[in-house]
Amino acid sequence: MEREIFIGLISEKMKLVRTEQDLSQDKMAEMLGISKKTLVQIEKGRITANWTTVVAFCTLFNQSELLYSVLGDEPIYLVRLIANKSESTPKEKTMGGVFWWKEVIAKGDFRLQQNLISNHYRILDENNYRWYSSFEKDEAIKRLDELSSL
User: Fold this and answer.
1) Among the ranges 62-76, 88-102, 106-120, which has the highest mean pLDDT value?
2) I want to staple 128 with a disulfide (CB 3.0 to 4.6 A). Which of 31, 42, 96, 132 is the partner?
């Protein structure tokens, strides 16, 4: 997912999340460090939020069920992935791809999956722990080869 697409998607959902969290525009603007006028412009679709505001928003509302269902993964995780282009994080337990994922390749004890919403890739082991993530399929396949040969 490109940064601009992500910014647009988050900007479109700010009002819904604010409502979900039962926050006023004044309180949300204060939390994000922007003016109420700017928040109103974003909520009305006249402008999109900037990257810094999106990062703050995703950090503050990382546990939002609405955001998770729109993105198919934790918002802050996708922020890190977009910022870094790929991520080899310490192993995190996942649900194994029950929702939002399609299996691309299985090799040894590992499998490569692609997110149906953001199109990013991840590698899971047989216990559903995440070993690697990237938006680049070739890089993910290369990492899968490395992991499966261990």
Assistant:
1) 106-120
2) 96
Rg for the chain (alpha carbons), in Å? Answer: 17
Distance CA 142, CA 137 (A): 9
Please report, for residues 98, 110, 139, 145, the alpha-carbon distance to residue 123 in angstroms, rounded to integers and kept in the order given: 14, 7, 11, 11
Beta-sheet pairing, 121-125 with 110-115: antiparallel
Q: Rounded mean pLDDT of the chain? A: 91
Strands (E), the chain: 86-87, 92-93, 101-107, 110-115, 121-125, 129-134
Model pTM?
A: 0.67
Spatial distance between the Cα atoms of 67 and 58, rounded to a whole number of angstroms: 9
Structure tokens at 145: 């080869």
AA letter at 69: S
DSSP 1-30: --HHHHHHHHHHHHHHHHHHTT--HHHHHH
